[in-house]
Design the sequence.
């Protein structure tokens, strides 16, 4: 078996997936210690964002959602600034104003995560519009969930991107639940990717646990988009290994998914799958792969220290950033 | 009377009304699991047919509730204030306007339960306090319970009401406790303010989550010899103007504590009424103790500066006494 | 050739189509005379609403849109009350508060027209929800345009109706333009009915000029709905013979459809098609058909007189109907 | 200076800015045909690439404008106030909040042109005057031109502004005429009120479509020997408080004429400010001459009762003199 993908891409994907994993394991620990509040973990879905972003350039844009650490880290976000933001500190990406759900780094094309479900889908579509209007080549991708796919915003954006032939990539992360509700109870169609037909664009169903599959599907979507061939809808079938958000298990009363199902999906850990692929094809050794994880762990610890030591935003920050220039305080 | 949490009181009110009338049903995202708390136990008692988990489609299911109500059902819809923007068209164009534009043909007994999470680091996308918006729009009753007893009694009145109602459930109050009447015939009427504390020097109108802070401030001022009358309007549409105006006639001073952003807030409205209708009673400038005009920052060091606090309210009261 | 449809249904359809036609010809005349303001004419599309409503009972519900006279008249609205409403008089359906775009008659299942495009789609879906929750048998249909189909409200409602298996009938009147914009420029898919696949419901493309075809397609949708088989999407391909609204030609600057296209579609007048069908199959004579038209004309003249003579609403009406019971005036 | 209609002045402003900056483009439903008037001629001059007809998807294209602005374009979006409810989430959650919640990273030079049709029998679904809602929400600049010159000058400033702006184009003003500067460097700054008429007895703040009625009322009162100062704030966010407060310091009396529904209106806000910050200057109760708190009825016999008219405003002025 050989892979149609270069080693540096594979290792970059592995590194970014470990970054997400360790970053969020650290968050879980910090949540347990009362250092931070509840956040939405991406653990189990790392291959989706990482595979997709590996197929894009820094000058391409992405937007995300409330499950909000995976996308920016996959696109190249700085762990220190991300962690500091989750701590609500001045050195965070948003100077502490955004928190976990609003990470953004415009400098590397991260247009931001969104707490309102599906709300960033039109925004990402608009970035693609700008690309087309200005005759640029950048593409714009947006990550949203199976639950989000039922929002009108998705319909309107996919239709708009199609009729205007925009370089937008719609990436639906079907982790099969919206909080406690199965997508089988809320999505009228078997596969969300089937809806692409309704917008006259390709709809691709991808194994979301397989970073390489995500990379390849996205690469094709990026090629199309850059080439003026319009948008693509990718459905990544995946699973979140943890609860909807840290802390939710304490208030949730009903069991909505079986332990057996969770256990089975855990066997399809995206990090194990990618590592195995790399090792089996001889692209790198197990030891090389392990070294990536170890190095990232150090990075994450540094980020945690950085976040802890960053000051809280000062009172004088309160009115800043409401507008682009100073306005009289009302 | 039993001591209950505000959140439980809301649930009691819903449960009692569901028992009383088979046309009442609850719908919303993850309501069966009661992710937001107040619906705990309802799915066990009422089952799938009356507790409906919806897709993530606020505009769609807010509107479906209108349609169901228009043909005789009594839907109770759970959401968060910040998700109402997504379904705004159905709230404004249909729920609020339908009856009037159809010359009274539509009777819409639908209740929207809008949970207001704020104050705990939920950041800009999850922290709206949007009742002033609906006050301006008109056609919707706007309810802001401030105590557990009111949470139950106003919820029950809302469900029995034949008009569309939005009940703003203040997240900062959900965990507060208080005596709640057990009787199923306990209802709190709309349009009747609650004088939480009588006083003679200053009228302090307190809305939703600012109620506890207002009471604390009044207590502090009492120790300084200032007698503060604390009034919770309980419903903003209809608004019990008379209670506020008579209090100001007595005290000559007005402070309004309002967790909404201050511009065009409920506080603005109440001050405009008093400035027009009770001007000659006023002995000092009115004071607006509302939230600062910013989106909600995540960092606690900033967020805590935004809302009217006990200290802020006390300071506003003192200003009226200068 | 024989028709799988009874004579009384055919004659009812013919009558209702003439009602719409003469009613709106009268409106056009009145607009010219300055008696009323601009309204949206349904002329050319009569077969859609009439064919559909003929397949429903009085206890079934419909909701409509800004092109707002055809649906209620097709469902059995009283012409006098409709005309008086368009005149803004107290004897109108909405006591003069609604006007042309907000005709409604709850007593015969008309949940009302809507000026906001697509805004009545969720409402109609909710009426169907009530039918299901209460174990009743009524169905709920909603008329919306090709332009409206791009609204999120349509997506959300169709998905909801499908996953909840509601007795809703979605009737998209594709008259091919939204004001001046061709649906080919805004709808990403060839046929709007193709979108039914995205909601796992039948999608039926019907000749909207043929009342019998509309009747039959709707009859099947009603059967399914009453039988608990869920929603249907019907696309009626049709054409509006007149401008988007009376008066718009005066301010419109660009030509967006060719005279030739208009002329060709006018050859497919739904009244002529139905009459020919009736006469050719021997269900009734041309004279009988003509008599229907003549009788309706008298009815329309009476409605016009009624409207003109009805008083304007009195000042005391202003605050009424804001709420179900009297509220203090603020 | 050339005499122009308000509607033409809006179009001039857009055209000049499109000429000046290739990043400016116009999008909306049927803008190529200029169904609402102000975009007349733009398609001929700027072509398909810069004048975009959108699908009927307000939430989608309002948000697309945000995204395009976030990466450097300067979209101008045409819509009606009443359609904004449909796209409310993108206006509130994205346009208004993005900059703040991302700590200043997002610069969003997007202009929403919200035409306000009312007064001509458009009925409840087409007659909203919703600027108070956006004043409460915050993060959006709120512009309400009252004269043709301001229509042009504020439009140009809006397009050059780096923040999201909603410009409310009052339908009752679209046909009014006035002198409009021809110079392409004519800009009307935000946050600077326009004193339309100086006076010493009463301060009359007039918003959007109430400007002509206010001027007519002031004229009428002048003939009765009352000197009315008429102030058009021009922008409600930012609001030129100082001009209003200094006028009240001089006159001691305040009337606010506002076509928005009166509860939580711009009038409410301005009165609350004056009641707090200029209380000691006031010599009489403030008067709110805003629209009645009803949806807009179709019948002219009813609709004409709703809005502040010359007579209504004059009556309010007289009340301050009692
Ligand atoms: C408009 C809106 N409605 C509801 C919510 C509350 N909420 C947050 S996440 C979520 C579930 C989202 O499901 P999905 O899109 O599948 O993403 P996932 O959480 O599975 O990653 C819900 C209901 C929200 N944030 N925004
Ligand atoms: C939400 C909304 N956006 C825009 C409009 C303005 N408008 C009224 S009718 C119309 C075109 C509707 O097209 P379509 O749905 O195809 O119906 P048709 O007029 O062709 O019958 C538009 C843009 C509106 N009324 N509501
Ligand atoms: Mg999910
Ligand atoms: Mg059409």
Sequence:
């Amino acid at each position: 078996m050989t892979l149609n993908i270069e080693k540096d891409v594979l290792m970059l994907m592995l590194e970014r997936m470990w970054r997400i994993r360790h970053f969020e394991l650290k968050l879980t620990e910090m949540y347990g210690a009362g250092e931070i509040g509840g956040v939405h973990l991406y653990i189990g879905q790392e291959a989706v964002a990482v595979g997709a972003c590996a197929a894009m350039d820094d000058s391409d844009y992405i937007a995300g959602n409330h499950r909000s650490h995976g996308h920016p880290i996959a696109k190249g976000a700085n762990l220190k600034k991300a962690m500091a933001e989750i701590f609500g500190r001045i050195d965070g990406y948003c100077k502490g104003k955004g928190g976990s759900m609003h990470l953004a780094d415009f400098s590397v094309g991260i247009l931001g995560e969104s707490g309102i479900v599906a709300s960033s889908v039109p925004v990402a579509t608009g970035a693609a519009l700008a690309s087309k209007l200005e005759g640029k080549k950048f593409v714009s991708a947006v990550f949203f969930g199976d639950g989000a796919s039922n929002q009108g915003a998705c319909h309107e954006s996919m239709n708009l991107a199609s009729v205007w032939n925009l370089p937008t990539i719609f990436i639906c992360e079907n982790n099969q639940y919206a909080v406690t509700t199965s997508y089988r109870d809320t999505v009228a169609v078997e596969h969300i990717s089937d809806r692409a037909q309704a917008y006259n664009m390709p709809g691709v169903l991808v194994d979301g646990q397989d970073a390489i599959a995500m990379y390849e599907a996205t690469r094709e979507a990026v090629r199309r988009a850059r080439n003026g061939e319009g948008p693509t809808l990718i459905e990544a079938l995946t699973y979140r290994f943890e609860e909807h958000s840290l802390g939710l298990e304490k208030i949730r009363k009903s069991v909505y998914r079986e332990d057996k199902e969770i256990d089975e999906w855990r066997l399809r850990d995206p990090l194990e799958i990618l590592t195995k692929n790399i090792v089996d094809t001889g692209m790198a050794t197990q030891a090389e792969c392990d070294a990536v994880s170890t190095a990232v762990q150090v990075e994450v610890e540094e980020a945690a220290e950085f976040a802890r030591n960053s000051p809280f935003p000062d009172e004088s920050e309160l009115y800043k950033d409401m507008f682009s220039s100073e306005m009289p305080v009302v | 009377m039993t001591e209950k949490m505000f959140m439980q009181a809301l649930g009691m009110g819903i449960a009692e009304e569901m028992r009383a009338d088979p046309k009442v049903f609850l719908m919303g995202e993850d309501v069966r699991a009661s992710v937001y708390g107040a619906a705990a136990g309802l799915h066990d008692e009422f089952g799938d047919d009356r507790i409906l988990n919806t897709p993530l489609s606020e505009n769609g299911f807010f509107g479906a509730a209108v349609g169901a109500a228009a043909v005789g059902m009594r839907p109770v819809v759970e959401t968060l204030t910040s998700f109402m923007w997504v379904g705004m068209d159905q709230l404004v164009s249909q729920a609020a306007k339908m009856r009037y534009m159809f010359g009274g043909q539509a009777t819409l007994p639908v209740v929207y339960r809008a949970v207001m999470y704020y104050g705990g680091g939920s950041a800009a996308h999850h922290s709206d306090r949007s009742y002033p918006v609906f006050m301006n729009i008109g056609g919707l009753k706007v309810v802001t319970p401030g105590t557990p007893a009111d949470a139950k009694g106003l919820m029950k009145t809302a469900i029995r009401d034949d008009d569309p109602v939005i009940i703003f459930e203040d997240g900062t109050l959900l965990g507060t406790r208080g005596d709640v009447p057990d009787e199923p015939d306990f209802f709190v009427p709309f349009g009747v303010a609650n004088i939480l504390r009588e006083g003679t020097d200053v009228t302090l109108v307190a809305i939703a989550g600012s109620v506890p802070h207002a009471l604390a401030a009044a207590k502090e001022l009492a120790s300084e010899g200032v007698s503060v009358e604390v009034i919770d309007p309980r419903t903003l549409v209809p608004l019990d103007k008379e209670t506020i105006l008579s209090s100001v006639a007595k005290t000559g001073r007005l402070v309004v504590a309002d967790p909404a952003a201050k511009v065009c807030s409920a506080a603005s409205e109440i001050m405009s009424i008093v400035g027009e209708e009770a001007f000659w009673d006023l002995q000092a400038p009115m004071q607006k103790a509302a939230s600062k005009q910013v989106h909600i920052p995540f960092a606690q060091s900033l967020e805590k500066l935004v809302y009217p606090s006990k200290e802020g309210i006390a300071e506003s009261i003192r200003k009226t006494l200068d």
Remarks:
- Chain A has one domain: 7-308.
- Residues 7-308 of chain A form a domain with the Rossmann fold fold (CATH 3.40.50.970).
- Residues 76 and 164 of chain A are 29 Å apart (CA to CA).
- The two ends of chain A are 66 Å apart (CA to CA).
